[in-house]
Amino acid sequence: MTRNEEYLALLSQLEAAPLPPSLTDSVPKAHAKARRRRSWQASLISLSGAAAAFALAVNLSAPFALACGKVPILKDLAAAVATSPSMKAAIEHDYIQYVGQSQTENGITLALEYLILDRTQLNIFCTVSGPERYDSYFLHSFLSIPDGEPLNNYGVSGSMFTPGELGGFSVHTDPGVSFPENMLLTFQVTAMERTSDTATISLDTPAANHYDVEPQVIATLTFPITLDLHRLGPSRQVDIGQWIELDGQRLLVQTLDIDATQARLTVVSDPDNSKWCEGLLFTLRDVHGKEYKPGSWATSNSNYVAQGDDREGGQVVYYLESPYFDGQGPYTLSISGADWLDKADDKRLVKVDLTNNSATGLPQGVTLDPDCGKLTVAGQMRLAFRVADPADPHTLFSWRYYDGAGKTHHFNQGWQSGHPEENFYVVGFDLTNYPYDTIALELSHTSSTQLETPLEIEFE
After folding, report:
1. pLDDT tens, 406-438?
2. How far apart are CA 326 and CA 460, in angstroms?
3. Could you give the CA distance from residue 204 to residue 206 in angstroms, rounded to a whole number?
4. From CA 186, how far away is CA 220, in angstroms rounded?
5. Strands 249-258 vs 236-246: parallel, antiparallel or unpaired
6. Digit-coded pLDDT (tens) for 439-453
7. End-to-end CA distance of the chain
8. Distance between CA atoms of 131 and 394, rounded to whole angstroms?
9. Opening angle at CA 327, ends 325 and 331, nearest 5
10. Count of CB atoms within 10 A of residue 395's CB?
């Protein structure tokens, strides 16, 4: 019996199981509705104990909660997607594919449990476990076709895992790119290894003193997977084609693409704008007033918000919860604001002299940290900035920077540390083998627009 057959058998057991009297009418209706649709349809949290019960009771519909309670393999998955209406709806409408593969290497076991697929997004759910000295794991994921040739034009969201708990992440393809039916999914597992008993750590002791500073790849595991493309329903695209003006900048709200687990709003900027649009604040409402908010399910602590770059072709795709199953038009797009980045270098760049520890272009309330320009224990060049508290809730910098020769680069990762007792926090980046005495960092935004009365666009 295949894993998919096992899953279907479990669903058959569910339908045959006795139900509480109060649900004998509602659950069969929900099952019948799902069967009628099955012919054409195909920020995650890990909860346990009372939290899982609360998620099932409050966040999920009664038939769905009952179903997940009776089929043990679905219980953790229900908790994992409890905060995402689109993901819950996809499971209710049979988009879930049970995998149930497991591999072990160097004492690290990775169990690939479920897949949830639509045309441009693959959601992967798994568990990672291993020796007690590892408190958490991070998965670096790579997709290839069966002969090992890497796939292109996709992006993977971050994926941190607590040992033994079901977690997940999303793989997003570029517009117009689809997933092949047969793939290899390779995971590189890294972890921070504890070097002392954390129970004895003083609260004022840096955690790095008790962990290996550099995470190590401790296992590499490859799973062959076959996507059940028969579960996919058709994508829908709505042409909007309306120009709007915010803060003197013109934007074309072009299309809304609707899939099972996420929707995508495409916005194109006028090339004559003096600023780049770095973020759009909006919500979508259907004819019944139901709201679909920005951000697509990605990981336990983040949403997938946007794809694309306003400065490269002027097109940005914004992700939001999907009205695929229950939404009905006409729709109303309500735009309440935007973040902007001036195109002029003297307004958008912070230039740092690493030799003299000085900077120009810093926003108000931001200063260089005394450690800026110094080498870390690992020999990396440290860039560090103190941000006054309370501070602008936006991220201070984008991921783009320019070296001393003017060449463009992107940071791979950044960090932040809090100092609430002194009313500031520190944000920074560490550079390996940086050969220059100067560097220019790009701000995340230079201004914001907040509308008292939202600008609304109605479309079918």
Report:
1. 999 999 878 888 888 888 889 999 999 999 999
2. 15
3. 7
4. 7
5. antiparallel
6. 999 999 999 999 999
7. 46
8. 38
9. 150
10. 14
